[in-house]
User: Fold this.
Amino acid sequence: MHEIGHEIGMKHTMQEGSVMHPWGMKRGKISL
Assistant:
């Protein structure tokens, strides 16, 4: 589950942008 969340977060952050989806970066850091 952690891996999936990390991948989704990274994809969202790259597609939409860290400014639009800051939660993506947070999720990725938590997963790591």
Observations:
- The two ends are 12 Å apart (CA to CA).
- Residues 2-16 form the longest helix (15 residues).
- Helices lie at 2-16, 22-31.
